[in-house]
Amino acid sequence: MKKSILAGIIACLESFSAVAADSYTVDPRHTFPGFEINHLGFSIQRGRFDHTSGKVALDSKTGTGKVDVVIDAASISTGLPELEKHLRSDEFFDVARYPKITFSSGKLSFNNEQLVAVDGNLTLHGITRPVHLTVDHFHCGMNLIAMKNTCGANAVTTIKRTDFGVSKYAPALADEVKIIIQIEALKD
């Protein structure tokens, strides 16, 4: 009887570990959410955010996971200090009132253990809206520099900035903003 109870406990533990998601910490040195916006019809302007943190949980075998990312809105980088100051102002990101941009998701979509999409909520400028990220690159493996298991991805979406209360110069300065996120996360 004791053997069957012990066997049952072991089987439960094994099944639990088989479905437990792996936990990862976002690598801020290799994670830079960026954006592209049409500038008055003349060009596509680009920028990125230099300070990002977060956690990722992945279980590709069961097709489940969770993503929680925090972006420091003041870390915006465009190559032009005066533009960055303007973008931090209350006319755009209003970083004094809204210092963080967050993304949270509990819905990851896999195709044969390959992450292909992430659906979640983006909070920007104090407004939360659902967004769908298409993942066009995903790879997990041993990072030979950090000597840690690492997962990386490239995700893309397009949002309307006016949906988030950022409407200065719209529509001359495009309403649609393409968001490109390259992310790497190290296994805990």
UniProtKB/TrEMBL annotation:
Q: Classify the source by domain of life.
A: Bacteria
Among the Pfam families in the record, one is YceI
Q: Which UniProt keywords apply?
A: Signal
SUPFAM superfamilies attached to this UniProt entry = YceI-like
Provide the leader sequence positions.
1-20
Record domain Lipid/polyisoprenoid-binding YceI-like: where: 23-186
- InterPro entries attached to this UniProt entry: Lipid/polyisoprenoid-bd_YceI (IPR007372), TTHA0802/YceI-like_sf (IPR036761)
The UniProt entry, under PANTHER family, shows:
PERIPLASMIC PROTEIN (PTHR34406:SF2), PROTEIN YCEI (PTHR34406)
This protein is called what? Lipid/polyisoprenoid-binding YceI-like domain-containing protein
